[in-house]
Design a protein that fits this description.
- The complex is a heterodimer of chains A (about 110) and B (about 450).
- Chain A has a single domain, classed as 2-Layer Sandwich (Transcription Regulator spoIIAA).
- Chain A is built from 4 helices and 5 strands.
- Chain A has helices at about 30-35, 60-75, 85-95, 105-110; strands at about 5-10, 15-25, 45-55, 75-80, 100-105.
- In chain A, strands 1-2-3-4-5 form a 5-stranded mixed β-sheet.
- In chain A, helix 1 (about 30-35) links the parallel strand 2 (about 15-25) and strand 3 (about 45-55).
- In chain A, helix 1 (about 30-35) runs parallel beside helix 2.
- In chain A, about 40% of the residues are buried.
- In chain B, the strands form 3 sheets. A 5-stranded antiparallel β-sheet of chain B has the order 2-1-5-4-3, with helices on both faces. In chain B, strands 6-15-14-11-12 form a 5-stranded antiparallel β-sheet, with helices on one face.
- Chain B is built from 10 helices and 15 strands.
- Chain B has helices spanning about 20-40, 40-45, 65-70, 75-80, 90-110, 155-195, 245-265, 270-285, 385-390, 400-415; strands spanning about 50-55, 60-65, 110-120, 125-135, 140-150, 205-210, 220-230, 235-240, 295-305, 310-315, 320-325, 330-335, 350-355, 360-365, 420-425.
- Chain B has 2 domains: about 40-150, 2-Layer Sandwich (Beta-Lactamase); about 195-425, Phosphatase 2c, domain 1, CATH 3.60.40.10.
- With about 450 residues, chain B is of the alpha+beta class.
- The chains are: A alpha/beta (about 110), B alpha+beta (about 450).
- At the A-B interface, helix 2 and helix 3 of A face loops of B.
- Chain A: It holds the Pfam family STAS.
- Chain A: Belongs to the anti-sigma-factor antagonist family.
- Chain A: This is Anti-sigma factor antagonist.
Chain lengths: ~110, ~450
């Protein structure tokens, strides 16, 4: 059984992906595959809710960067919600906090 | 085994009385069964599904059954009294008979299941399994040898199939081992192209490096180098590419040679990283497989007059370098906000500068060190604070000593260290080499 689960739901602003478990070398591709099934339209915002993410390594970061590229290719925006403290620290070290909009929780990320 | 007919009840016997119908049927079956047995002794001998052979003690054939004659393609008259058992065998079979079969039979009185080939009249050979027993007379003297031969063609074919299978498997294994060796040699050569064999001598600077490979058959994702850029300056870099394996190695190679080439055009740290960012972004951004690296790149300008070394560096997405001072203190050289190299087109890189006095050392590392797991939990990591404390304990020591101590620290992580880790230490010697003596006043 994969230690990663991804749930999708739709907010008024666009799709919300919730990452539950470990986003790492072993299963980061699941996020990549899930992205290809998303209905993401220009002007929408893709929110990735990380409140349930327990672990994220460099492959997980790559998957998030890929999500950003995917959103931008669809002329949509991307936001990260509820980034765990350890991952936020890594995001800051590698400067990714500059290219991702980061929100404390899902509700603020979807602007409701 | 013979059942004389006169001992059988007559199925037509009127004495059988009222139950005659049922009884008569059973009796008829018994009679036909008996009739089968009746002629079976001779017929079984002749037509048994095996060959029978009786020979005198010198091997001369005394009796042979039809089955064996058919196998051999010989007439009885040509064999009985005219041929010996060994005449029926192939050359190899004859040799084996003389050296093993006959002596053993003489010794033991019987032998079973010996694989031999018999020669057929049409020139072919037929594998058989031979069992023999010596028949003794009433006074114990050997009279003759009784031999049975079983058709072993199916069995031999099966054995040959097994042997062929085993040979093929061994060949495949040898091939796989050869391939594996070749692959490992290729990997080792490629790995060497990703890292310098040894660091060049930099006048007025001591250098030391260490590379920890997380897995021997996974090409590394960390890199470092030190090289001269002009008469007075040297450039250095160290970094970590995303991912593992061959794709990561290709990225490492691209990164290393891009930085070396960029440094020749403009050795400035931001210029070199900006060139690398452009190259990586253009190479990978459209691929759907984003690839990037963290990197710290800088220049060293040793001043032979003072023994000091000026360091200018820039970093993108990389943990901060450490400066270990000769006075026993240590501190990070922060480069906050520098972005991973290759993620966005116009990435920003952060610069920092430091001057190394005699006995000071600049330490660069990849996050394999700080992200090493120190507890059972995947998030219990070694961390920045622990590294700073460890480095402070090494302040004032030479780059070689610093890298040696950190190599020991990496080893102490055991399984907690599951990422490649690169270390590069650059220091101003505590005791600068003797300078050319100044000329005294004339």
């Amino acid at each position: 059984m994969s230690p990663l689960a991804i749930t999708t739901r739709d907010a008024t602003t666009g799709p919300v992906l919730e990452i539950i478990g470990e986003l790492d070398y072993a299963n980061a591709d699941e996020l990549r595959e899930r992205l290809t099934t998303l209905d993401l339209r220009p002007g929408q915002r893709l929110v990735i809710d990380l409140s349930g993410m327990e672990f994220c390594d460099s492959s997980g970061l790559t998957a998030l960067i890929n999500a950003r590229n995917h959103a931008h290719a669809a002329q949509a925006d991307i936001a990260l919600a509820a980034v765990p403290a350890h991952t936020l620290r890594v995001l800051r070290i590698v400067g990714l906090d500059q290219i991702f909009a980061v929100y404390p929780d899902r509700d603020s990320a979807i602007g409701s | 085994m013979m059942c004389p007919a006169d001992q059988q009840p007559d199925p037509q016997d009127p004495d059988t009385g009222a139950g005659a119908d049922a009884g008569a049927g059973r009796l008829a079956d018994t009679a036909s069964f008996a009739a089968l047995l009746e002629d079976s002794a001779e017929d079984l001998y002749e037509s048994a599904p095996c060959g029978y052979l009786s020979t005198l003690m010198d091997g001369t054939v005394a009796k042979i059954n039809t089955t064996l004659l058919d196998w051999l393609g010989l007439e009885r008259e040509a064999v009985v009294g005219r041929m010996r058992f060994t005449d029926l065998l192939t050359v190899g079979g004859r040799l084996y008979h003389e050296t093993h079969f006959a002596p053993l039979l003489r010794m033991q009185g019987e032998l079973s299941g010996i694989a031999l080939d018999v020669r057929r009249a049409d020139g072919g050979r037929m594998p058989v399994l031979v069992s023999s027993a010596v028949k003794h007379g009433s006074t114990g003297e050997p009279l003759l040898i009784r031999t049975t031969l079983f058709d072993a063609r199916e069995r031999r074919a099966y054995e040959e199939e097994l042997l062929r299978g085993r040979k093929a498997a061994e060949e495949a294994r040898r091939q796989a081992e050869a391939d594996r060796t070749r692959l490992q040699e290729a990997l080792a050569v490629l790995q060497q192209s990703l890292l310098p064999d040894s660091l060049p001598a930099v006048p007025g600077v001591e250098t030391a490096a260490h590379y920890h490979t997380a897995s021997p058959d996974r090409l590394g994702g960390d890199f470092y180098d030190v090289f001269p850029v002009d008469g007075t300056r040297f450039a250095f870099f160290l970094g970590d590419v995303c991912g593992k394996g061959p794709q990561a190695a290709a990225l490492t190679s691209l990164t290393r040679y891009t930085l070396r080439a960029a440094a020749l055009h403009d050795p400035g740290p931001v210029a070199a990283l900006t060139t690398l960012n452009k190259v990586l972004y253009e190479r990978y951004s459209g691929s759907g497989d984003p690839r990037y690296c963290t990197a710290v790149y800088g220049t060293l300008e040793p001043d032979p007059a003072t023994g000091r070394v000026a360091v200018h560096l820039a970093a993108g997405g990389h943990p901060p370098a450490l400066v270990l001072r000769a006075d026993g203190t240590a501190g990070y050289l922060p480069t906050p906000g520098g972005l991973l190299v290759g993620v966005v087109p116009g990435a920003h890189f952060t610069t920092a500068s430091a001057t190394l006095g005699p006995g000071d050392t600049l330490l660069l590392y990849t996050d394999g060190l700080t992200e090493a797991r120190t507890g059972d939990d995947r998030t219990g990591l070694y961390g920045d604070e622990a590294l700073l404390a460890f480095a402070t304990g090494l302040a004032g020591r030479s780059p070689q000593a610093v890298v040696g101590a950190l190599t020991g620290l990496l080893a102490s992580f055991g399984d907690g260290l599951d990422d490649d880790t690169a270390l590069l230490a650059l220091g101003a010697p505590a005791h600068p080499a003797a300078r050319p003596p100044r000329r005294g006043p004339a």
